[in-house]
Fold:
Amino acid sequence: MKQALFIAGPTASGKSALSLRLASTLGGVIINADSMQVYDGLRVLTACPNEEEENAAPHRLYRFLDAAAPCSTALWVKHAMIEITSAWEKDQTPILVGGTGMYFKALLDGMAEIPAIDGAIRQAVRDECAAKGSEFLHAELQTYDGDAAKRLPSGDSQRISRAVEVYRSTGKALTEWHKATKPGPMAEFDEAGGVHKIIVGGHTREALYARCDQRFDWMVEHGALEEVKGLMARGLDPQLPSMRSLGVPSLVAYLKGDSSLDEAGDEAKMLTRRFAKRQLTWFRNQFPTWERVSAQLSESEYPKIFT
Structure:
């Protein structure tokens, strides 16, 4: 039977290190399932594998897109299935690892087949969001997609903009598109018992937050500022996903002289901790049946993953 391993977990939980050990033991291929690690130019700030780690096991879908190119869930699913199929053809185990729960959900539960959004409409929504704020678009969203408006915080500019652009472009609410969702491309394998799903934990919340703080300090010391300088030099739209990656807006503010490095660091750490908290809640609610394991899972315990 074809096998696949899905490893989800909050940021800084240790899932990448665990996936590397598992890949070495199982002869696996590590496939990125993190929406920010797809972008080139942010290797340090998005905690992508370093060269030594990449040499230790095959890695796929890391830094494969330019920072100016938005990556939709549909695009990622397309590339992920190519890599999963390729791994199976080589008798390797695909190990998908990351913190973007929607990626895993799309593979298993499917996603709405929404037509391509008109580029002019997308830009108009982005411009409105920048000029008037996400709260303005959230109020508009309430008039034709109340369910989405209730589900999305008024400050979630990226997802609110997405819901608004879908309605303006298609004339149909995002919620209605979701109701017509078909099973995901990995659903059949999952039902047959071929997809093994784990969530990496094992840290207290306080310990996880401390890891987030320590990791950001390490990033600043090892090239994060240079990465952000490179993005700024390109004059990229600040609303692009890559420019909204954790730490990027805070360091942009510092490099522009709008804050001190300490203030930028404190803000980035706070936002990262909040993000980790949201991830914990999301995984608990969306993936209640997934196996919970520690990042320090020993080799003798690996068989429990495949039961």
Q: What stands out?
A: Residues 184 and 246 are 29 Å apart (CA to CA). The chain has a mean pLDDT of 94. The beta strands are 4-8, 28-32, 59-60, 93-98, 195-201, 291-294.
